[in-house]
Each structure stands twice: as structure tokens, then as C-alpha cells.
Amino acid sequence: MIINTELEYKGDLFPSQIIAYKHEVDSIDFHTDNNVILRVTVLRDSMIRFRFTAKGYFSNDFSYAIDKTQSHGYNVLEVTEETDHYRIKTSKVYVVVQKHDCRVGIYELDGTTILEDEIGFHWEECYEYGGNIVKMSKTSHDGESFYGLGDKPTNFNLKGKRVENWATDQYAFAKDQEPLYKVVPFYIGLHHNKAYGIFFDNTFRSFFDFSHERKGVTSFWADGGEMNYYFIYGPKMSDVVTTYTHLTGKPELPPLWTLGYQQCKWSYYPEAKVKEITGKFRELQIPCDAIYLDIDYMDGFRCFTWNKEYFPDPKQMVADLAKDGFKTVVIIDPGIKIDKDYSVYQEALEKDYFCKRADGPYMKGKVWPGECNFPDYTNPEVREWWAGLFKELIAEIGVKGVWNDMNEPAVMEVPTKTFPLDVRHNYDGNNCSHRKAHNVYGTQMARATYEGVKRFAYPKRPFVITRSAYSGAQRYTSSWTGDNVATWEHLWVANVQMQRMSISGMGFTGSDIGGFAEQPSAELFARWIQLGVFHPFCRTHSSGHHGEQEPWSFGEEVIDITRKFVELRYQLLPYLYTMFWQYVNDGVPMLKPLVYFDQNDAQTHYRTDEFIFGNQILVCPILEPNALGRRMYLPEGNWYNYWTNELVKGKKELWVATDFDQIPIFVKEGAIIPKYPVQQYVGQIESPELSLDVYFKLGKEKSYVYEDAQDGYDYNKGRYSYKTFALNGKENELFITQHKEGTFETQYQTIKINLKGLPFKIKGIEIDNEKIIFDKDSLILENGLIVDKDFTELHFIGV
Fold this sequence. Notes:
The chain is of the alpha+beta class. The chain is about 20% helix and about 30% strand. The strands form ten sheets. It has a nine-stranded antiparallel β-sheet with strand order 5-6-7-8-9-10-17-16-12, with no helix packed on it. It has a nine-stranded parallel β-sheet with strand order 31-30-28-25-21-20-19-33-32. An eight-stranded antiparallel β-sheet has the order 1-2-3-4-18-15-14-11. The chain is globular, with a radius of gyration of 28 Å.
């Protein structure tokens, strides 16, 4: 007879005494007498993985986030046993594992504390779902700051915040609202001018607490899975971000046109409306490279179909748009309409590709087409099938990019906004419930889309954009921050989100310029354009329910401001392309918050507005109405005001006056900024001449310019041009030397040199040690100097 059916509530459980350890190659396993195993794996001297299990064995080691193509290695690994602890030493840090409770401490080689466990790893049995809730608590330092975690719409410094990671469709989200669309469980800690990173690679619903619940304690936990995290040491924040980006992967170089301005709305239809919009851009001479088609282009919102009433000949329309320089991008959602006469549905049904509930029936939910089933993108066979569906769109019709939306996954008219937690997933052979697969569903959809677009766009490069993402999604896709609102608060949020995404490994990101929900004022739209052109992904997008949001919807003044700033973006395309090259190759974020730029300056630790665009341009948006200037902080160094060329000393806060058609922009002294002439679209000018804006510095500075064929894969065969320009300024002399890598030859033959801030009059010029004759130095300073593109050294000699 059963007299007690209640399960014992044990509360938090902790590792006990370590009774044995085993060292094999790069890993050390520590076994406790209550069945806990801690596996410490040294991947690099500065990157160490910590993996705990409380069940006496590890599950299959599988991660969607880790880039398996990246190689790692270390120089030193020494393991020693002391009286009360074990010590693991690399060439950068050492780790102490306490024998009596498995607590971990990480230190610099001189003993300085980097990160220590507070109560460390603990867990709570979860009888409702099985498995454990896994938890980690670490000590935080006085004055410690925290950054990262993706698209969180809150203060850039996360000290005192608690955040949640559960990909969620949050229409018209608010500042500080949790959670949002993306899950990037990676943060950077900074104390005593030294930075480290933690990547908690767990796809279950997770939480991070930065001294919000308990002062002096940083904690993170998840509703299931393993306590599996990577520790990354800097001590520079740049080292932490770069190492994390290598770990989770980098994208391939996008085609140059994707860095142009893009226009979108829910929705442009019929065909005549699309052509009216694109024609207006050309008429007003506002550069634009892409036009988007939202869900209304489809037949009843069925993916991979066309509404032939609105778009009777899609292939011809796409070709017509291409002749005028517009690339067509279309939306594809995960919900497949339940319709026996719909071929995509029938094929998925026959092949059993839809997600199922735990007791067998297909997961059913309502989205735009009505009742839908949903492909299981965690199944590699389904991803392969999905990729093949893009043949008609890409190879036959000529669409250039695909936009994945609603892939959190979003489901309408249910309180949770998503799948029930009992839905089953293949998870690449590691079968699981939606509790584990939810946060990666959107990434795996984008991955399958990327494989299809890449296959059928070849030999051109693919372009994919996603709303939902997990760490590592940047290998396949760009992203945007979802359904924001046309408010000044959201302009501030967009600025912070882009900086946060950039240092979270997902650099190719933008916001819906002007706001998706509601209607911006003319002033707000203009200020958003002025910020948005400095974000890697630059797209205006809005809900048609709230009115028109094209640049010409706000009057002549805004048309002129939009043209001015979009033209500036197109001029800076070689600078932006170079930023991307450095991101793709070296893991360097394209937008650099001030704390990243100078972590030793405490004034940068809580700055949210200013950021470095690339390496040498400082941008500070206007974020409130009726402002003809603002206070801002100039970091270390000397900076030229972009509009006036006035040189200003940094490491101070100052007032900067601006007109309505300006925002504060500064250029680092010594910078050489590459520019192209204004084009209405990428490729309009077959061989745009390169100009170099040279900002004088008393001292040395290096700048870089990357160029290739702007699309295709020849750059992987060495057919690229990566130029290093070294500037050396003296009291009466200026030297500029050029070094080139790669075999690509640009079609232009000359470079135009524009000198800024030169402190002397020019009396002589030498190009590769040969003197040249010139009329007046004033003409050179006003109109620039034309030189052969392959010069080795320019020498300006002053009076």
C-alpha cells in the first residue's frame, strides 16, 4: 500500500567533496562523491570551458552556437594538486578548483582576482519537466560594469539589471521590456580596467542577474540543460569580443549593395505601387539599393507563392527593378498554411517534416495564413528540403535576398505567443522538447534559408535577414531589432541596441528607421535617418496602418536631409566595406561603444549615446526634439569636427552646436577616410574613383581600405585589394605610404588626396621620391591632389 506519494522537495543542491580527477589532453574531469562532474577544458590560454553535470555522466556534446570550423590551441597547460585545491595554469591565467565544494576561482598569473564563484554551481531538481534547473553565482566587484547580451532595450551598462532570454515576438516593445526577439547569452565584465567574458551556451530559457537581486553577486541560470559556460579573458574588451566572435563564428562578406540604403513597408503592392516608390527614389535622387515585399506579395500568405492579381509577372517586375538598380528582397515566414491544394504543405506533410506535439499530432497554430503547421528546422533533412524551395524565387525569378520574420516562433492568439513547450524537435539527432529548441528555432530557419539562397544565388553572395536569433546566427544572416515604435525613446533604444549587438558578435544589424509602429514626426524621422546611416544594416520599415513613411512623406526639408545623409553613407561605402572585412576576418565589431574604445577611462563606462563607427569616425546622434546641439563626450585623442574641420582635444565633455541637417560627427586625427562618389545604387558607376580624406596628425596613424569585385567569391582566391595607408605627420612635413595585399586590380587608375588640417603651406611634393610641379598649394588644399593609385609614398614638404 502506498502511503506517501509526495516527492521530496530538496531545494538547491550543491557539489560535495572532490574524490578523484582525470586529466586527458586539454580536459580535466573532477568527480565529487555526490555524482557531480566538473569538466574544465582549455581551448586557448585565455579561453576555458566549464561544464557541470549532476547526474554522473555528460549528455552528447552538441551546440548550434559554436563554429566548428574555428581552430583553437594553447601554449601552456599545467595541472597541480594542492592540499585543499587543484590548480590549472595556462600562459595567461590560472584556475583554482576547491576540493571541498568544487567552487572555481580564476586569477591572473600574479594572483590578481579576475572572477570567483560566490556559491558557484548549484541546481534544483525539476520534477515537472525532468532534469534540473542549473544555476551559477559569482562574486562581482565594487564598480564592476557589465555589457553585451544582444538586443536588450535597456541601459548599455547592465549593472543592477536582471534580464531574460526567451525569443519573443514583442510588438511595439518598450524600453526595459523583457524578453525580446534574440538570445545572446554572452556578457562582458569589466573591473579594475580589465575585461573578461562569459558565454553561457544553454538554449533553455535563461536569466542573468547583475547585482540586482543581491549586491555583489552576478548570477545566471537556465530552466534545463547543462551548466555549460566559456570564460574568456582579455584583459582588453576588444580581445574578449574578438575571441567570442571567433568562437561563435563570423559571416561571409556580404555583397556591397547590401550596405546601401533599403526601403520596406508592410506592404508595397500591387506592382504599380512598388514601381511608383522606386521611381520616386530615382526622381528625387535619394540613393537606394533594395526594395522589400512584405507578406501581401503572396497568394493568401502562402510562402513561396505570388499573388498574381497584384504581381502578374514577378520575373519581369524583378528584372525591371534590377535595370533601375533595385534589388528585390521578399519575406518568408515559418508558418505553412494547412491547405491540401498547396504544394509546399503537401510535400512537407508527405515527408513528415512538421513539428509534432508530444502525443503525436502536428503542432498547429494561427499566423498570417490562418491555421498553419511549422517545419522542424532543427532536422537537417528539413533544412535541406527548405533550402531547395528557394530555387524558383532566387534562380528563376531573380529575387536577391530573403527576409525571415515571425520565427521566434510567433503564434497568434495564444497567451505564450509561441509553441506549447511539449512540441518535439529533432535537434540534429538530439531529440528534445520546445523548451530546449525554442531559442534556436529562428536561427535554424535562417540557416536553412541561407543555404537555399546561397545555392541558387551562386556565383553571387547570399543576403538573408532574420528577426529571431541565437548566438552563432551571424554565420548565416543579418538581423534587425523587430517591431519598434516611432518615439524618441525608441530612437535612443535603437542606438543602444546596435552598439550592444555589435559587441555581442552580431554586427550586421539595424533598426526599423522611423519606427515600425505608429507615425514619426518629420523631425524624428530626420534624426533617425541621421543615426541609421551609421548602422551596418540600413533600412526604413514601417507598418502601413499608421501612414506613409517614405522620405518624401515629411516635406522638402526632410527630403534634403535624407538625401544628404544617405549620400554620405554611399560616399563612405569603401570605409564601411573595410569595417566589414575586418569584422569577417578578425572578429572586430563594426560599431565600438566608447567603453570598448577606451576602457581605462571611467567616463566611458556608462556612456550610451556616442559610438565609434569603424575605427576612426565618432558619431553622436541627436536623441531629443527641438535640439540644435547637445553635450557629448570626446574620448582620448584629438578629433576633427567633420563639418568644420576644427581640431578638438578629447577626454572631455563638451557642447557641440549643430543645425537640423547635422549631428555631431568627429574624425580621429591622423585618419585617412576612403570615399566613393555618390551613386544612386551600388554599381551605377562601374569604376568609382577613390578619394582619401587625410586628417593631419603630428605623429603616426594607420588606415585601411578593402576593395574587391563587390560581389562573388573571387576574394576567397586572393582577388582582393587590402591597402594600408600609414600617415606620419611632422611640423613641416607629411608622409603617406601605401602597402597593398591581394591581387585584385581596381578599374580606376588614380586616387584623389584631400588634405585636412594641414598646419603648413606646401612648397614641395614628392611622389615616390620624384618631385612634381604644382601651381599653388591653395588649389591642392581646395580641390585635392590626383595621384596614381599605386603610389608607394607621398611626401608633402612645408615652408
